[in-house]
Design brief:
The complex is a heterodimer of chains A (374) and B (406). Chain A has 374 residues and is an alpha+beta fold. Chain A has 11 helices and 10 strands. The chains are: A alpha+beta (374), B alpha+beta (406).
Chain lengths: 374, 406
């Protein structure tokens, strides 16, 4: 039992904290959200320099061999900075999939480039109508000579507009498989849009997309457990991001309670507000505990243990994040609902996290169903 | 960052388990696990058994014959004791007055009182709250007047304490008393140890919602207390009381007991049926169990985070303990509520005999299972947890003022 970070982890945390304070202030972020790319390509290169794009990859492929606790640290800081860069899509999700299921040749071709900041990836898995279910894919992969033809539609593919390559799930004769697809290949069309929190996503249509034999990631027909694991990783990362945002929201809200005056006193003198602030602090401490649990257990080789812990953390943090986000807005009064202040943007990101890869109810259901087994 | 227990911690857990298997009397653990009524002797007997093992005071330093265990070891010990169905070690002597005597008592007081606490000889109770002084404790009025005399100085104590838990069994009571009415009200309070056998003390029972006699009023009329029973300095009692409130928080979250009760809730939800199916298959009910479990999973880690940080920095527990108190008490209440609800309409009968250790069901009431009788009473009883020890509203004041500086 040890709750301390290593020296290296603390140093990385400090580096990111300083980067966000100096090079990624809120005004910069606001402008980025409205720019064409929707994120900062220079920051992406800086992330490569920091090593965080290489974090979860094996050393043999230019990685740092980091674990999910390292990732938690990074995500917490990216949360505080409201970073718009598609870190989860490229590094955690797709990088994780390639690390776990890719061939040596695919890892060699993709991971060092990703680590260096020269390749962006997006996972095109969820489909319209399937909601959060991971096992429902209607997209088809039809054998065509040595390769396949892909046809189907993918919903709200995070990071797709910037992605060089997509990892697409599709049903072949054997079951669910994953394919690496060039984002600009003929037959791939993107309906791109900003998300509510200023990031970028797209609905992706695949019509007669031709891929070669080398596009298959992992064994044919056996992609579902790989996807479940990758989504659990991404979920653990989102938990940490949410905790970073909740801490930041508590800080700005506390500052506001101490400075905003009404009735001749700082509004933080009022007990109704004090207790709400106390509730936010309690919620955040408890959420931090659950994010830690998710980070530690997501590396577990036991998939039942892994997914139970992640579902628990997402269900719990989903609920606590809603409380902290809504109350932060409420305690800021009118200032909470204007675009100018960071509070509303933290709230929006927190809200969107709560709807990504399953909401609190969905994850509560996953967790609750494990009670039947025991 | 590692949430797994080390090999040493695991072997310590094994050591505690084998001790519990060997020494915890089954007639006691059966009562605890079944929610049956416990007698004074159950508590005392267990304390003596622990003391014989050298484990009488898991939170005390070795200099006072405590175990000297670190926070994680104490946590493991608490968890295993709870799981095995050991009676709770009552906090009044071990965790409340003892640390004050260690920190502020003189050597004579330490030698006089501490050995009799750890070996189970003396039963202590707490004299803090008064009818007019609950959350506003510093307004307390019970008067102690110093009288100088040739046969030894003494205090004359007049007034009333209330909510005195298990005071009916107590040999001693530690009291906050008013020794001055000048200056700020906090500055006129002293910390006095009073022998319950002293003439002029009367204990009157207060019956709680579960019908049980757990708490009392304690009345003091011209009670003569030797001046040597004063802890530290006169009028400094508030400082000692605050020390006490901030001390010894490793058990405050009640994680071990709540884990045991969660297990019990799940067992009950498997046994009880709804429409012929196990209740746990009812998704609405199962989700509510799941929600409490999530709270408890989070609290377990928060608790370990707080106590291991305290262990490392060797500092007194801080206001973070308020977080543990708020969450821990809420979880206890949710668990008792769900256990009661699991019974369906069989939550309604009040069968006093069902709390007796030897009760084994009633043939006239086939659906009224052995586990049922205590559950509604527990729900009513445990409403106290968000009220006592500084109500949860007071805890939130502490968080806002001491952690957040509002």
């Amino acid at each position: 039992m040890d709750f301390n970070y290593t020296e290296e982890q603390l140093a990385l945390q400090d580096t990111l904290r300083r980067f966000i304070a100096k090079d990624y202030p809120f005004e910069h972020r606001r402008a980025l959200a409205k720019s064409a790319d929707g994120f900062d390509r220079a920051a992406w290169k800086t992330f490569a320099d920091f090593g965080i794009l290489a974090l979860p990859f094996p050393e043999d492929f230019g990685g740092l061999n980091g674990n999910a606790v390292d990732s938690m640290l990074v995500m917490e800081m990216l949360g505080r900075g409201l970073a718009l860069e598609p870190y989860v899509s490229t590094v955690v999700l797709c990088g994780g999939l390639i690390r776990d299921a890719g061939s040596a040749a695919q890892k060699e071709a993709l991971l060092p480039m990703t680590a260096g900041g020269d390749l962006m990836l997006a996972l095109a898995h969820h489909e319209p109508g399937a909601r959060y279910a991971l096992d429902q894919v209607a997209t088809t992969a039809t054998a065509q000579g040595e390769g396949w033809q892909l046809d189907g539609a993918k919903a709200v593919v995070l990071g797709a507009p910037a992605a060089d390559k997509l990892i697409v799930s599709a049903m072949d004769g054997k079951g669910m498989s994953l394919f690496l697809v060039d984002a600009r290949a003929p037959g791939v069309s993107l309906r791109s849009y900003p998300t509510q929190d200023g990031a970028r996503a797209a609905d992706v249509k695949l019509a007669g997309v031709q891929v070669g034999a080398e596009a298959l990631i992992g064994p044919a027909g056996a992609a579902l457990p790989v996807i479940e694991r990758a989504i659990d990783y991404a979920s653990a990362a989102l938990c940490a991001e949410a905790v970073g945002i909740m801490s930041a929201l508590n800080e700005v809200t506390l500052e506001y309670l101490k400075t905003r005056k009404q009735f001749g006193v700082p509004i933080g003198k009022f007990q109704a507000l004090q207790h709400r602030m106390a509730d936010m602090v309690i919620a955040t401490e408890q959420a931090r505990s659950m994010a830690t649990l998710a980070a530690v257990r997501v590396d577990s080789p036991d998939s039942a243990e892994r997914s139970r812990a992640v579902a628990a953390a997402r269900a719990y943090i989903g609920t606590q994040a809603r409380l902290v986000g809504q109350q932060a807005v409420q305690l800021h009064g009118g200032m909470g609902v204007v675009d100018e202040l960071n509070v509303g943007h933290y709230f929006k990101r927190l809200t969107m996290i709560g709807l990504t890869f399953g909401d609190a109810d969905y994850h509560l259901g996953r967790f609750s169903d494990t009670l039947l087994a025991a | 960052m590692d949430l797994n227990f080390t090999a040493e911690e695991q072997s310590f857990r094994e050591e505690v388990r084998s001790f519990l298997r060997a020494k915890l009397p089954v007639e006691i653990s059966r009562k605890v696990l079944g929610g049956k009524r416990l007698a004074k002797d159950d508590f005392v007997r267990w304390q003596k058994l622990l003391h014989a093992q050298g484990w009488g005071a898991s939170g005390w330093p070795a200099t006072f014959a405590g175990t000297g265990w670190n926070a994680v070891q104490q946590h493991i010990f608490d968890e295993e004791c709870a799981d095995a169905g050991a009676p709770m070690q009552l906090p009044f002597g071990l965790k409340m007055v003892a640390p004050v005597i260690m920190a502020f008592g003189n050597p004579v007081q330490q030698q006089r009182f501490l050995p009799r606490i750890i070996d189970g000889t003396d039963w202590w109770c707490q004299g803090y709250s008064e009818p007019g002084s609950g959350s506003d404790l510093a307004s307390l009025k019970m008067r102690a007047q110093l009288v100088k005399s040739a046969d030894g100085d003494h205090y004359v104590v007049n007034g009333q304490k209330t909510w005195t838990t298990l005071g009916q069994y107590a040999d001693w009571i530690f009291c906050l008393v008013r020794t001055s009415t000048e200056g700020r009200q906090q500055e006129g309070i002293s910390f006095l140890l009073i022998d319950m056998k002293t003439p002029g003390i009367e204990v009157r029972p207060i019956i709680m919602l579960d019908g049980e006699h757990e708490i009392n009023e304690v009345w003091f009329e011209d009670v003569k207390v030797p001046a040597e029973n004063l802890i530290g300095e006169e009028n400094k009692g508030w400082t000692y009381a605050k020390f006490l409130l901030g001390h010894e928080r490793t058990g405050i979250a009640g994680v071990g007991r709540s884990k045991r009760e969660l297990k019990k809730l799940k067992e009950i939800a498997r046994k009880e049926t709804s429409g012929g199916r196990p209740l746990i298959e009812d998704q609405r009910f199962r989700d509510r169990i799941a929600q409490v479990e999530l709270e408890l999973m989070a609290l377990e880690i928060t608790n370990l985070r707080v106590i291991s940080a305290e262990g490392e920095k060797k500092r007194a527990p801080g206001p973070e303990a308020s977080i543990l108190k708020v969450k821990g008490s809420e979880i206890q209440q949710m668990l008792t509520e769900l256990k009661m609800q699991a019974l369906g309409h069989y939550a309604l009968p009040y069968l006093d005999e069902g709390l007796a250790a030897d009760w084994s069901g009633d043939p006239q009431m086939p659906a009224y299972a052995d586990h049922a009788p205590p559950l509604s009473g527990q729900y009513f009883n445990v409403r106290k947890t968000t009220i006592y020890g500084g109500s949860n509203e007071i805890q939130k004041n502490i968080i806002s003022q001491m952690i957040l500086g509002l």
